[in-house]
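Suppose a colleague, Dr. K., hands you the sequence of a protein chain of 479 amino acids and asks what its three-dimensional shape might be. Before reaching for any lab equipment, you can write down a predicted structure in token form. Begin with the sequence itself:
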Amino acid sequence: MAVSKHFIRNLAFLLFVNVIIKPFWIFGIDRTVQNTVGEEAYGMYFVLFNYSFLLHILLDFGINNFNNRAIAQDQQLLARYFPNMILIKFGLMLLYLLLCFGGAAFFHSFNQQQWTLLGFVCFNQVLVSFIFYFRSNLQGLHLFRQDSILSILDRLLLILICGGLLWGSLTQLPFQIEWFVYAQTFAYSLVAIISFLMVVRQIPRFSFQFDKTLFLQIIKQSYPFALLGIFMSIYNRIDAVMLQELLPNGEVEAGIYATAYRLLDAVNMIPFLFSTILLPMFARMLKEREQIEGLVSLSASLLYVGAISVAFSCFYFQIPIMELLYQQATPYYMQIFGWLMLSFVAISSVYVYGSLLTANGSLWHLNSIAISGVILNIILNYFLIPEYKALGAVQATFITQAIVAIAHIFVAIKLLQLPLKGSSVLKLLVYAALVIGICHIALQLPFHWLLNFCLAGSLSLLLALPMRLIKLAEVKRLF
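The predicted structure, expressed as tokens, is then:
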């Protein structure tokens, strides 16, 4: 009970600060930037971003998950690990930049504008990797409040900068996609400095002392995490790159795909925040041999109910949602968005069971699942994109995420001997069917679509209470 209260209390604060800032960033700023600069310019940025993200894990090399788990299990390791981790990350930064620019020169024929943007986008990835590493220390120390503030600080800065450029009459020139990237560089730099200082404050006597033995030990223990990150990055981000490579108008299709992916990113914020708390909590509980079934059940129930409600509500109301957000939206945009949102249920599942398996150190199993996901996703994209374009990429994503999620669940159940109740699975299936019915009826109501959409989502969430998928006592604790 105490663990559940701790989880709910910190989760509530984390959700509160993120729900205030990040939706406005995604829908107010990021969406406006795309509408302002156009599909082709934003599509170019989206392709470059996804290309840089494919190798992003080299900046991490599994250090974040390894470090989060290690510090959560023994907080005294921070003073010893931190200086050596910093040196490792600088070495990884050089390797990342070399491979990014070398790969781009070998496989792509970028023009001068694209090379300049790629340089800044890659540097931004470096800054983000340092921020996430610094935050992994705070998470391992269970300083969730400080971590929550850092999780929105960069977006808050970007809202102020880009908002001023878009609406503040700071310049008479039309907004350029380059400004969007430069603003990120400034915001990430400032947050990286602040997060570094917050971690250093937790170390009594901080100094850079290189320990060769520890250095090699960290590399050896973290490389399985790195492989996992590489494989997951590929099957999550390769679609935008393959759109550009397989289609003559690849940047335009990537821009269309980005319109739908933006909303998936928005709702994906919730399960991601769950995982930042779940991983260190699972790690500590497993080390101390505490019962984890309660926390697994609580987190999975909350995420499944939310994901099913959001996914089907968005699927049924795909037309008015896309018309509201994008002036140029066509039925093609809407179809892509609808199917992509259905992937959210599977993605949410991976955040719970993937965090649990990571905390348990089941890296061989996780990597096996991830590399299978890579192979499946590339094959599906290769055959579906030429015929169905961005819609084919969405179909590949949906199939891959569903199979990967099922694999995570079954591996977690087998390794950790979690109870699999047929009644619970049946209850979720019945719940999903009832949510579909609610959304179908809400779509036909003679009110404004936004009211109908809110009714569908609210009734779907409320339905979980009498079905006891979410217990009222847990909802009260959340508030």
